[in-house]
Amino acid sequence: MGNFGSAVLRPLKNFNIEARAHRELERQKIKSVSAPRYKQPEVTQGQEERESDPVTNSKDELLHERLKVVRVESVGPANKPFKNPKLPDRSTSLPEPEYGVVEPANVPPGRVTISQALNLISQHQTDPKLYSASHIAREYKLELHNAQQILKYFQVFHMHIPKKMEEKFPHLLTVLKSQMSQMESERQRRLLDFAKEAKNPSKKEILEKDIQKS
């Protein structure tokens, strides 16, 4: 009922709406009144005397000449000139990080770096009995629960070759096996280097010390 009533009354409301709008605007123009203008403060007697005094409005040449000979002398120790700190003399840039992120030299217990995580995962996949979760937790100072979760949910990449590709490219498997053996030997070498660096100061620590000394 409400929609029907509004549909009936809408034409009556909009009848001659433009003329009514113009009349309302003209009525507002007539009613509009400008803001009142406030009176300016009266000029006092002292202000009139200052404005009419020729000494105040004139320039004293003698005082102007005296200002030219004024000198300001500072007393006390002179400020030392600022010297730029000595920059390091190293002209070579630091080596690029292996995984795109500079790994910290000191790793707190319960944490591992990216390279350490890849090493422990690959160790477990190579020999699960020798590199068990308890062994990895002791070696890398991790909690046993965290080590178990890492070995359960994370793995290194596996290469899968379809049988059709093996039949089509029989020499491909031989090439891949040789590359995998090279990668495995490289991984073993890195593991040995990592074990040595755990006992001796790392290269990063030596570089950081050199930079601090320079």
TrEMBL record:
GO terms for cellular component: mitochondrion. GO terms for biological process: mitochondrial respiratory chain complex I assembly. Pfam families: UPF0240. InterPro entries: NDUFAF4. Signal peptide: none annotated. PANTHER family: NADH DEHYDROGENASE [UBIQUINONE] 1 ALPHA SUBCOMPLEX ASSEMBLY FACTOR 4, UPF0240 PROTEIN. This is NADH dehydrogenase [ubiquinone] 1 alpha subcomplex assembly factor 4. The gene is LOC115225844.
